Please model this.
Amino acid sequence: MSEILTRSGLRVGSPAVYGGAAACLVLLVLPFYLDRFWLQAGLFAMAAALGAIGINLLTGATGQLSMGHAFFLAVGAYGYCAFAGDGADGLAGLGLPGWLAAVLAVALSGLAGGVFSPIAGRLRGAYLGIATLALIFIGQHVLFNAHDLTGGFNGRAVPPLSLFGLTFDDTELLVAQVPFGAVEKLWYLGLALLLGGVLFARGVLRGRPGRAMNAIRDHRIAAGVMGIPVARYRAAVFVLSSMYAGLAGVLLALVFQRTVPEYFGMALSLEYLAMIVIGGLGSVAGAVAGGVFVSLLPQLLNRYSDALPLVSAPGTGGIAPGEAARYLYGAAVVAVVLFLPGGLARLAARRPGKPGSGKSPKTPMHTPNTPTTTEPSGEAR
Amino acid sequence: MTAPPPPPGEHIPALEVRDLTVRFAGLTALDAVGFTVRPGTVHALIGPNGAGKSTCFNVLSGVYRATEGSVRLGPHELTALPPHRIADLGVGRIFQNLALPPRATVEDSLMLGRHRLTRTGFVAAGLRLPSAAREEARHRARVREIAAFVGLEQQLARPAGSLPYGQQKLAELARALCMEPKLLLLDEPVAGMTADERRRTASVIAGVRDSLGISVLLVEHDMGLVMRLADSVTVLDFGRRIADGAPGDVQNDPAVVRAYLGEESAA
Model:
C-alpha cells in the first residue's frame, strides 16, 4: 500500500518530480558557474550529509546514541591516506590505487565499528553514548601520537583519488571552456556518493531492517518478543553507521587535501548530533537537510562576515564566524526541540500540496469509508 | 468477517509450566506455579492484581529469567532462551499496555510481525534487490488477509496512533497473528474496549482457536469473557496457584471466591 502511495506521489507531472529534476539539474551544472569556495562548501555539505545519514540510522532510527562518530570519520580519512599513500613523505602507506584505497577505508571503518559492536549491541541509548566517548579519547590520542601513521599534530597530505583513469587533482581539465580542477571533479563524485548513500539508507529504512530498527527504538522489549534479535541488530546498525562515517571521512579528506587530528574531536561528534536533531531524527531527508545546514552555516558567516553585524574576522574584536555559527546552530537545536519536533524534514513534509503530510497525526488521511467505531470511548484513557 | 487465515500446517505443541518460581530481590513473585495449556485450547490465567500473571507472561516470552522451574513448549525448554528465540518457536504475545509505534501505518506495524518469517537483510533492502521486493509483496498480501480477519482492512493505511484505543489493541492482536504463532499469549486483550469491540475481539480469539487450532493463554479481568471463552482456567493469588480446572469448577471454588472477595464473604 505504501509503495503504491509513494509511487502515485511520484507520478510524472506532479510538482515533486519537476522540483526534484530541476534541483538535480542545478546541482549538475553548478561547477560551471560557481567558484572554488562555494564548490568546496558544497562538498563539505555532501560529506556531512553522508556522515549524518550514518548517525541518523543509529541514533535517529534505532535510538542508540553515539558520541564516537568523529572517530569513524577519522578512521575513514586516515585509512584512505594510509592505503593510498606511497610512503614518499616518510609516513606509512601501501601505495594502492585511490579507488581501492577508498573502498578499503570504508571497509576499515566498518571493521572498527565491528570491533566495537559487541559493546554497541549490549548497551542501549544513552549508555552507549557514554561508552562511545572512549572512542574519541582513544582516537585523539592515536592521531596525535602515532606519527608514522598519522603524521602527528601536522596531519598528513591526502593522495588524490583516481578512478577510471581520471585523477581528482588540480591538473586542469577543460570541460566546455571551463577549467575543471579538483573540486569540480570531486563535486560529481560527491553527488554520486551522496545519491547512492541516500538511496541505500532509504531502502534500509523502508524495508524489513528499518521496521526492526524502529521497533527497537520504540519498544525494545516488544521488539525482542516479536522475534527481532535486538543485540544483533544494534551491532549491525552500528557497523553500517560506521561505514557511512568512513565514507564521509574519505570524501572530507579528498576535499581538504590534508587530514589534521584536531578536526576529529568531540566537537565534530556533537556537530553530527546537532545535524540530525535540526534536520529530523530517523529520516534520510532530515540527515541531509541537517548536514547541509550545519556545515554551510559557518561557511556562509565566514563569507559574509563583513556584511553581518557583530560578526567579524577572527582576532578583530567581534565574534569570529566559526563561533557565531556555533551560537546559531546551538540556538537552532533548542528552537527545533521546542517548536519543531521532527526537524527541518518534517517542516518540508508539512508544506501544503506535498504528499507525505499525512504522517502528522493531526491530519490523518480521511477516507470516507471509515464509518466504523470511531467514537472513542477508550481514547480518554 | 472474511475467511480465517489458513493454518500453518504444523502441529501445535502443548505448553507445560512446572514449578515455576520467580524471585526479585527477596520478593517471590511466582511460587512453584504449574499448569498445562493443551494444544488448541484457550487457557485463562486469572487472579487479583499483583497475583503474578504478568510476571508469568514475562517468563514465558523470555523477558524475565525464571529462578527455578521449567517451561516447555513441545520439545523445547523456554527458560534459557532469549525473547527472539522464543518468538522463533512460534510464541506470539500482546502486551497489557500498547506497544505499537504511533507514527507507522497499521500495515507497517503488522509487517513487523512478519519479521521472523522474512529474510531480507541490510544489503538486500538497501540495494532494493528483486528478491527483497518479492518477499515484501508476498508478506504484505498475507498481512492484508490477517487485517481483514480481525476487521482492520479499512485502517491499514492509517498511522496506528490515530486509531481509537480499542482498534489499536486489535491491531496489536493482528500483529501477533502475523507471526503465524502456535501459541498466543494475550495480556488483557479487551481492556479499555467498547462492548462492540469486546465482542469482536472475543470472536477473533475463538476463531483463532477453532479454525487455526492455535493455543491461547489469556490473562483477562473480564470474567464474563473468560467464562465464555476459556476451556480451562488457572487462578493465581500472591504468586501461588490456588485453583486449576474447568471454568465452572473454578468459579465455585471457595479459595477463588476468598481471593477475589476477601475472607468475610467466603465464611
About this structure: The CA atoms of residues 202 and 225 of chain B lie 7 Å apart. Residues 130-150 of chain B form the longest helix (21 residues).
